[in-house]
Each structure stands twice: as structure tokens, then as C-alpha cells.
Design goal:
Length: 222
């Protein structure tokens, strides 16, 4: 699919893949009937801001650790930050953790704006945008801390194990935690009828399973 170059920040390029637009359309259509189209359209800037802020946090940590600029691609179910680096486990752990931490930080800042800035609570647009932006970032931060591949939580877990285990062992443990926990969350979401999250988690489980199959066939983790 095609891509749109959005710009460059301190050497880090930002690209929008058309698959990210599909995600936005999905959220808009999912909320249009219950909330109305004008409110549902607010999901477009909410998703763009939340995911971009998350990926910029990864890129900032990468740059702060001395690995130079990165390439951010907004795509699929979120985004990805690419950088050719040979980092130590503790550095990769910090890089992974920067994403969810940034979402909690943004949610906190937005909440402060809503409660302390009169214009944020009086203007109709901001009154609709900001609470949704805060909610989306709390949710995105918590979701990314789950130990499911390819979420940041699984990368944090894997790099934690890399601090005292070999790469192979760290990968095997983290990928099986991803599979077992993912299946548990998937069943729970089905029972509680949280269908969207169930579908999302099922995709993460499938991704982890394909990574495990690739590892088994190639006997490596890269």
C-alpha cells in the first residue's frame, strides 16, 4: 500500500502508511452509530496524536541514548519506530518502556488541561476531544504494557530476561508468556463480550505464534 511522508523531526522521519487510515476509518465507523458522526470523527486526531506521541517517545529515547535518528511509520494497528542500533539489554528496555510511559504522561497532561484551563472545558471541540484523548492514552499505555508480542510489554519482559539470560532463553520465555497470557486474555474477553479487544489480542497471539514458528525453523531470534 502507499505511504505519505509527513515530515522530519530532529532527523527522525515520520511516514503514514495507508493501512493506518483503515484503522482510523474502522474506529470512526464503529462509533458513528452510537455517538454520531461528528463525535466519531474526533477519533481521527485522537489516534494520530496518541500513536505519534508514543512513537516519538521511542525515537527520543533512542536518540538520547546516542543511537541517532530513527524512522517512524504509522501503520496497521498502531506504529513502529525503526533504528539500526546495537543496544545493550537495559537500553532496549528503556527504549521499549518510553512508549507507554509517554502515553500515561500525555493522559495526565490532558487531564490537567481539562480541570485547570477554562477554555478546555468550555469550548465544544475541546470538551469532546480532550477527555477522549486522555482515555485513549490511558488505554494505549495499559495495552502496551501487556506482555504480548509485538507490544512494548513483551519487549520489556524479553530485555529484562536478557539482563541475566542468553538471547535464546530470553526469547523463548517471553514468547511463551505472550502466548499463554494472550490466550487467557482472549478467552476472558470472549466471556465478557469485549469483542474488539478479543480480536485485537487474537492478532497479537497469532503474531507471537508466527514468531515462535520462525524461531523454531531458523533456530534464531533475529
Amino acid at each position: 500500500m502507499g505511504r505519505i511522508h509527513l515530515g522530519t523531526i530532529f532527523g527522525t522521519t515520520i511516514t503514514l502508511d495507508f493501512s493506518f487510515l483503515i484503522l482510523i476509518v474502522f474506529f470512526v465507523m464503529m462509533n458513528a452509530q452510537s455517538s454520531g458522526m461528528p463525535y466519531a470523527l474526533i477519533w481521527a486526531p485522537v489516534l494520530l496524536i496518541s500513536v505519534l506521541f508514543h512513537e516519538l517517545a521511542h525515537a527520543s529515547m533512542i536518540g538520547g541514548l546516542g543511537f541517532g535518528s530513527s524512522a517512524i511509520i504509522l501503520q496497521g494497528m498502531g506504529g513502529a519506530t525503526y533504528n539500526d542500533r546495537r543496544a545493550r539489554p537495559w537500553q532496549d528496555l528503556l527504549i521499549s518502556a518510553a512508549g507507554p510511559v509517554s502515553n500515561f504522561l500525555l493522559a495526565w497532561i490532558v487531564t490537567l488541561l481539562v480541570t485547570n484551563v477554562p477554555a478546555a472545558s468550555h469550548d465544544p471541540f475541546f470538551r469532546a476531544l480532550l477527555p477522549l484523548l486522555a482515555y485513549a492514552n490511558w488505554f494505549w499505555g495499559v495495552l502496551n504494557l501487556l506482555p504480548l508480542g509485538p507490544l512494548d510489554g513483551n519487549s520489556i519482559l524479553r530485555n529484562f530476561f536478557r539482563l541475566f539470560l542468553k538471547e535464546r532463553s530470553a526469547f523463548i520465555i517471553s514468547i511463551w508468556i505472550s502466548l499463554v497470557v494472550g490466550l487467557g486474555i482472549f478467552v476472558f474477553c470472549l466471556v465478557t463480550r469485549q469483542i474488539f479487544i478479543a480480536i485485537l489480542v487474537a492478532w497479537y497471539v497469532w503474531t507471537s505464534w508466527t514468531q515462535w514458528q520462525f524461531f523454531r525453523s531458523h533456530n534464531r531470534t533475529d
